[in-house]
Design a protein that fits this description.
Elements: E1 4-8, E2 20-26, E3 29-36, H1 44-47, H2 57-61, H3 68-83, H4 89-114, H5 122-142, E4 151-152, E5 155-156, H6 164-187, H7 190-196, H8 204-210, H9 215-218, H10 226-229, H11 255-279, E6 308-315, E7 318-326, E8 335-341, H12 343-354, H13 363-369, H14 374-378
Antiparallel strand pairs: 1-2, 2-3, 4-5, 6-7, 7-8
């Protein structure tokens, strides 16, 4: 049979966003792939050059709607490195709580979007149901539903609302029980296991060489997590363990391994949040915002010319990074250059290669298992 190219996207359920995957097939077998990105490129990095350091935060929220908190926090840490600003301990605990709430909500969005790809609609409804609980908590913090505009250089926008800890504990305990239902419905489903086990193998060394990070590389047994490899915030003060899977094959991690590592990670995030709520400092001397004049609202932030700031951050999808260069004389409140490292920009071309040798029907299962987000990819 003659080989032919087919196009999946830019508007296709498999893509989970606007991009195109061109697939060369021989019958039903994939023999070559060609990913095409850039459909929703918005020029965020260039826009940042004409915004002050606080005005940039809402743009970071929109890099990935499913993980807004993580991107905005990653940016704020880079600004603090640039301006040499210290963050109060209470603010760091609030940040950790907000980011881990977002990680759970992001993984629930992934699981809800992924299960219909492999034939299960029930979990989609369940995931959105439980994701609402975590969105409610983050809405309490930032005031908005998905784009929270909550972190600030030097701290956060506001303190924890009255009764927040009690509501968060109740919802997390409820969710931990519901996770058992997810595992029962998926791990005991023949359809789910057939579609995910032995499909989409990715070897650890190949992912490391390609620069793939986050849950995808940890699913292959690589214990690399920015939260302990490049410590920041108060992750070294709370109880947690990096989520790592041991693949059942020498071929590497399959779709099922990538599913399992995210389930474990949600459990660890819940454990971190509960521990942080117990350990968060209080009292009159505990603040949620720095008093440094360089980042106060009424005083423009001053970034010396040539000064740089950068930060590694464990996003829901891997290692994100911001690099910021100061604007210098006359432009001290604006950055001269902002560069963003998206984990998905590296991961998607790698995933396209892992599809070779599998069937057309396996493409949604493989692509979805890597949790693509195109907003952060195009930036």
């Amino acid at each position: 049979m003659a080989q032919m190219w087919i196009t999946m996207g830019p508007q296709h359920p498999m893509t989970h966003g606007l991009w195109t995957l061109r697939v060369k097939i021989d019958g039903e077998t994939v023999v070559d792939t060609e990913p095409e990105l850039g459909y929703i490129h918005r020029g965020v990095e260039k826009i940042c050059e004409s915004r002050d350091f606080t005005q940039i935060i809402p743009y970071c929220d929109r890099l990935c709607y499913a993980s807004a908190m993580t991107w905005a926090h990653s940016y704020c840490y880079a600004v603090e490195d640039l301006l040499e600003v210290d963050v109060p301990e209470r603010a760091e605990y609030i940040r950790l709580i907000a980011v881990e709430l977002q990680r759970v909500a992001s993984h629930l969005m992934w699981l809800g979007a992924y299960t219909p790809d492999v034939g299960n609609l029930t979990v989609f409804v369940w995931c959105l149901r439980d994701r609402e609980m975590f969105l409610d908590l983050m809405q309490e913090l930032g005031g908005s539903r998905m784009h929270y505009n909550f972190p600030r250089p030097g701290g956060v926008k506001r303190d924890l609302p009255l009764g927040f800890a009690k509501r968060a504990r109740a919802k997390i305990e409820m969710f931990k029980e519901r996770m058992k239902e997810y595992e029962m419905l998926l791990d005991e489903s023949t359809i789910f296991l057939v579609r995910t086990q032995g499909v989409g193998y990715a070897r650890a060394e190949d992912m490391v060489n390609a620069g793939v990070t986050g849950p995808n590389v940890r699913a292959a047994g690589v214990n690399y997590d920015v939260r302990w490899a490049h410590p920041y915030s108060v992750y070294d003060e709370v109880d947690w363990t990096s989520s790592v899977e041991k693949p059942g094959s020498v071929k590497g991690a399959d779709c099922y391994d990538r599913y399992r590592v995210r389930m474990t990670e949600m459990e660890e995030s819940c454990r971190m949040i509960l521990d942080a709520l117990d350990k968060i400092p209080g009292g009159a001397e505990s603040h949620y915002q720095s008093g440094d004049e360089k980042i106060l609202t009424k005083v423009p932030s001053r970034a010396p010319e040539g000064a740089t700031g950068h930060h590694h951050f464990e996003d829901s999808r891997g290692e994100s990074m911001f690099y910021i260069q100061g604007g210098g004389e006359g432009r001290g409140k604006y950055p001269y250059r902002v560069s963003i490292r998206s984990p998905m920009f590296i991961t998607i071309p790698f995933v396209a290669e892992t599809m070779i040798g599998y069937k057309i029907a396996d493409i949604p299962a493989i692509m979805g298992s890597f949790d693509p987000c195109i907003g952060e990819t195009d930036r």
